[in-house]
Amino acid sequence: MLRKQHVPWNAAGAASEEQHSADEVVRETGWVFNNVVGSELTLADFVETGDQETGAYLHAFGLWDDLAQPDQAIVEIGSGIGRMTAGLTRMFGRVYACDLDPAFLERCRETVAQFGRPEVLQTCRVADGRSLPVPDGAADLTISYITLQHCQQDDALALVHEAIRVTRPSGSIALNMRTWIARDIVLWPLGALTRALWRVPGLGTWLARRRFSTRLGWQANRLSPKDVLPGLDGLKEIRVFRSPKRRPFGRTDAEEATFEGINRSHWWLVATRC
Ligand SMILES: C[S@@+](CC[C@H](N)C(=O)[O-])C[C@H]1O[C@@H](n2cnc3c(N)ncnc32)[C@H](O)[C@@H]1O
């Protein structure tokens, strides 16, 4: 059965199919990726934001120099319409762009055709929301940004294991997750109610296309390092990156570090594959 937290992504994917140009897609559905709205937005601006964020994170995690080589491969979990993917195809020799929604993957191919190198792109549909159709050890780096928070909790954890599986020995993973903040006392129950309403025939379809409802309901889990790290095998040099505005997680099984660019509610698991 379709998971209810897939509803807004499939609704946005369907909305993206109704637009005539890539710039219109960004104006109509781009906000689901980077929360920026405006009547002047273009696909070029959108890709530029992806390039900036990719560079900032890879530098912060110390991965920029070692990775991003023309003969290396990257797996991106949750590519959307290619905001970051286009830049990744300019940096890597092979890019596996994985997403739940086939319409997003179609748009991702268009974005890469305009702003990247389509010859190195392979799009991969994550049909069940938890398994990557990518061979073992295919990637030098596996990255995921603002995606795992949108999955049912056990799917997010399954995707973390998948990230380890598809990364070669001595390769790296960099996975972004969303944890608890004080405002979740209100946001969490409202989100659960919203996801339940998406299942109501008629009303659900209408609601799933509304920005207010999507923003309330789309963060379908909260995962802290204590929920993720104990179950993991096959990783070494484990680092947890958080915002300097939040207290340390107090892990003894990972080195903790901060980076200004990280949202207070987010953290990153950065590690090397054994
Ligand atoms: C907020 S967007 C982020 C896209 C991209 N990383 C970016 O920064 O522009 C989240 C993406 O995750 C995808 N997604 C949600 N659940 C997923 C799952 N279980 N497996 C794979 N992709 C998923 C959505 O379809 C959407 O494209």
Describe this structure in words.
It is built from eleven helices and eight strands. It has helices spanning 7-17, 22-29, 31-34, 43-60, 85-91, 102-115, 153-166, 184-197, 203-208, 211-217, 225-228, and strands at residues 73-77, 94-99, 121-125, 139-144, 167-178, 235-242, 255-258, 266-273. With 274 residues, the chain is α/β, with parallel strands linked by helices. It is globular and about 50 Å long. The model has no long low-confidence stretch (mean pLDDT 93). It binds S-adenosylmethionine. S-adenosylmethionine is lined by residues 9, 32-33, 77-78, 80, 83-84, 98-101, 104, 126, 129, 145-147, 150-151, 155. Residues 9, 32-33, 77-78, 80, 83-84, 98-101, 104, 126, 129, 145-147, 150-151, 155 line the site of S-adenosylmethionine (SAM).
**What's the overall average pLDDT, rounded?**
93
- Number of DSSP strand runs: 8
Helix-strand pattern, N to C? HHHHEHEHEEHEHHHHEEE
| Low-pLDDT windows of residues | none
Structural class: alpha/beta
Span from first to last CA?
36 Å
The portion of residues forming beta strands comes to 15-25%
Q: For the largest beta sheet, what order do the strands appear in spatially?
A: 3-2-1-4-5-8-6-7
What is the percent of helical residues?
Answer: 25-40%
**What about the largest sheet?**
8 strands, mixed
Radius of gyration from the CA trace? Answer: 18 Å
Structure summary:
The protein is of the alpha/beta class and 274 residues long.
